[in-house]
Structures are given as C-alpha cells and as structure tokens.
Predict the 3D structure of the following.
Amino acid sequence: MAAERETLFIHVLLPLAIPGKLTYRVPYELNELIIPGKRVVVQVGKRKLYSGLIHTVSDTAPGNFEAKYILSVVDDVPVVSQQQFDFWQWMASYYMCTLGEVMKAALPAALKLESEAIITLSGEPDEGTILDPDEERILTFLQKSGEISISAASELLKKHNVFKLVKRMYQKGLILLKEDLSDQYKPRQIQCLKIKIN
C-alpha cells in the first residue's frame, strides 16, 4: 500500500511592511526541497511575484482561507539561518517595526527578488562561459537597452517565472540587480495663496 502524500504549508516572510507572515501551500513534488531559510517564489495579490523566505513549515491548513501554492523553490541551501531569524525578530521588537521591514533592510539586493527588481549588465561574459538561449536573449537585450525589470524579462521570454534564471545569471557574474527606487519618493506639493497687502 502506497504511503499517503503529505500536504505541507509554509509560513513565508516577505520584504514588506505587513504584520506577520503569509501562508502558502507546497506542491507535493516540492515537499523534499522545503527547508526554513530557503527562498520561494510566491504570488502576492493578482500579479506581483516575490521571493520570500520559508520561516516555518506546518502540516496544518489555515482554517479561514484557501492557501495559494508556491511557484518554485529558488535555493538549493538555506540563505538565512534560524539565528538570523531570531535576531531579526529581536530587531523588529526593539525598533517597533515589522519583521518584513527588517528583512528588506538586512538582505542584499541580489537576494530580494521581486517582479519589479531591475536587472543590469555586469560586463561581457568570460570566454568559455556557456549560455543557454534564455541567457543569451537577456544579455542581448541588456546590451541594447541597459536594464530590464524581472517582470519585463518574463514577458520577453514568455515565461511566467524567471527567478531561477536570474539567480543563475547573477551567480555567473553576468548581471547585477538593483532595486527600482525611482518612484519610491514623490515630494509633497501643496497649492498656497498669498495675500498681497499694499
């Protein structure tokens, strides 16, 4: 008799100013890859994709909603340890902010993949570097245009999830990642009337 398949749920920490963590369901075929501290690709809202950190694993389904499935596991080994999670929790408590805000500040840009993160060219590939067709297409685009967002790269390649491709290209030293800060700050403008007194 075949063993019953275990359904896993994970609590994912995202680099967002939201209280707590979000719960996602793990497809059966990814069960063996699930370890706290690894990054997973998840959908937040209707279209936005993020790489979040597996914080805890459970076999109990959430009682008040149906959890979305994770899309993929990004890492082969954890990128954050339990000691780091504990330290982040202390920082969030001490500075009265969310755990996601601490994560956003603590992780380097290369580990905070999201659909609007910006990819730029690092330099020409070394001689002998083996590129697959998707990598070549991204590099060709970057040589012409200078930068591309991860969501635009997905559209260019007609693939829903390019996070693993981006990670691979970063590890090969082909690309750099930066956060798009261009629209984060907008100065507040107010209209004033000045009364002229003679």
Notes: Confidence is low (pLDDT under 50) at residues 180-186.
